[in-house]
Amino acid sequence: NSISTNKESEYISSVIPGWFSEISPMWPGEAHSLKVEKILFQGKSEYQNVMVFQSSTYGNVLVLDGVIQLTERDECAYQEMIVHLPLCSIPNPKKVLVIGGGDGGVLREVSRHSTVEQIDICEIDKMVVDVSEQFFPHVSIGYKDPRVTLHIGDGVAFLKAVPEGTYDAIIVDSSDPIGPAQELFEKPFFESVAKALRPGGVICTQAESIWLHMHIIEDIVANCRQIFKGSVNYAWTSVPTYPSGVIGFMLCSTEGPPVDFKHPVNPIESDDGHCKSNGPLKFYNKEMHAAAFCLPSFAKKVIESK
Ligand code: SAM
């Protein structure tokens, strides 16, 4: 009541001048905003609008088709979890495939694992790779690892051509299911993933927000239960600049040596000696790993019923 009516109206503005507001039908009725210091890049690729701006509190920000993909400040919460949740859950991962993830952050995290011999990445949009190299050096550093091979192309087509049983782990670091990433959320894609994995191999895929997208999550879980005959789990992490502030992952294994994602067998900690140039882990540790699988009751009920 201490705020007068006049003052209140100052807080109400759908698009605040000088701020980036993330408006999308994927999260109707809400829009997170960041103050823009400077627009660094704006372009249109064959697939999407690409923008980079310098924010006042989250460092440089990558935006694709109006949706924030990463900020320098909180990208660790996403990249470290999407990689170490699956790779710490299996012994001796050797061959890893990344679909999407053109910024290179997932590669940076995979490269912390010394047992890994081969890291393939299939990103559809070369502009994302180039922009990351120019404006996100601490993220694109992932490409410096000699084990990395970059393929520019559609992840769906790439996977269809992969010989059966090739990979120990496949990490799908995709954008939302509107635009080029749509097929990465559909059943035929998960079928190709399962085929491309060795017995007891694992997938970790970006699986949206429990606050906003339970309907999408329900479909992903139902498809995965049909396709992955090992284990099927949902985990989540907090990323302040993603819609609703959280993002989930679907973690599944194929039939074969059992994988218990909740009890990792291949620990990695920040004092690990590998890849010092990548800097220390900022977010992931074994407690965060275990906690990621604890779900609020409303989400647990739906996910377990599928
Ligand atoms: N790594 C990220 C982070 O920190 O949140 C963000 C997501 S990443 C930038 C998502 C990438 O998936 C985009 O670069 C997009 O071009 C790519 N992508 C979308 N559809 C794809 C497809 N069908 N095949 C391969 N890559 C795709």
Question: What are the main properties of this structure?
Answer:
306 residues, 7-stranded mixed sheet, 12 strands, 26% strand, globular, disordered N terminus, binds S-adenosylmethionine
- Main pleated sheet: 7 strands, mixed
Count of discrete alpha- or pi-helical segments spanning 4 or more residues: 10
Give, in spatial order, the strands making up the sheet with the most strands: 8-7-6-9-10-12-11
Distance between the termini: 46 Å
SSE order in H/E notation? HEEEEEHEHEHHEHEHEHEEHH
Strand content: 25-35%
DSSP helix fraction? 25-40%
Our Rg estimate from Cα atoms comes to 19 Å
On the 0 to 100 scale, the average pLDDT is 92
Q: Rough shape? A: globular
Which secondary-structure class do the elements indicate?
Answer: alpha/beta
Note down, in words, how this protein is organized.
It is a single chain. This protein is of the alpha/beta class. Helix content is about 25%, strand content about 25%. The chain is built from ten helices and twelve strands. The chain has helices at about 5-10, 75-85, 105-110, 125-135, 135-140, 155-160, 185-195, 215-225, 285-290, 295-305; strands at about 20, 35-45, 50-55, 60-65, 65-70, 95-100, 120-125, 150, 165-175, 195-205, 230-240, 245-255. The protein has a seven-stranded mixed β-sheet with strand order 8-7-6-9-10-12-11, with helices on both faces. Strands 1-2-3-4-5 form a five-stranded antiparallel β-sheet, with helices on one face. The radius of gyration is 19 Å and the shape is globular. The relative contact order is 0.14. The structure holds S-adenosylmethionine. S-adenosylmethionine binds near residues 181 and 184.
